């Protein structure tokens, strides 16, 4: 799946998440895309369970409370930067932002031959059980939200005092780690995307522990930080 295809798929998902269930003709006219392209991508998103098809209409499996106009989402340059990371490590890469005290994944660049990576698009997570959430809180200006006591595994941080200690470690190291806190067997990393020394988004990746060993963390984090700085520069220019 190319970055162009991902962009078109995201536009379809975003349109449906904001405007509600719509037929094929309405989507293609609103987005000015060929009918064949909209049909192919919409049907793929249905197979991935990102969209549902009810009669002649498609609907998103998640709903935005407001449109998210974020410079990082629509820049061709940003796709190219993130694709370099995917090619380098054969890991997916995500962009997350804070939205209503949750992490919302607003961009995904999947691995080749792994279109299921795109199902992360639109996913929401409590901040205290995800690397991306902890990263955004650690490097942002938002106050600590109410911590989720239901989601995550037994490794998740659910006490405010412990989370504050973890946030201090994250600020010191420059990255956040989710070590099986959300899903057993899954390790996640995240670094901030900063504008004027404040996180406006974050860049993350995840993989089974066997594919993202501790000895690889330093190399992956260094690359994420490099690409994050490049994305920050793009955001300051736009």
Automatic annotation (TrEMBL):
GO terms for biological process: negative regulation of DNA-templated transcription. Residues 50-237 form the IclR-ED domain. InterPro entries: GAF-like_dom_sf, HTH_MetabolicPath_Reg, Tscrpt_reg_IclR_C, Tscrpt_reg_IclR_N, WH-like_DNA-bd_sf, WH_DNA-bd_sf. Pfam families: HTH_IclR, IclR_C. The keyword Metal-binding does not apply. Keywords: DNA-binding, Transcription, Transcription regulation. This is IclR family transcriptional regulator C-terminal domain-containing protein. It comes from Limosilactobacillus mucosae.
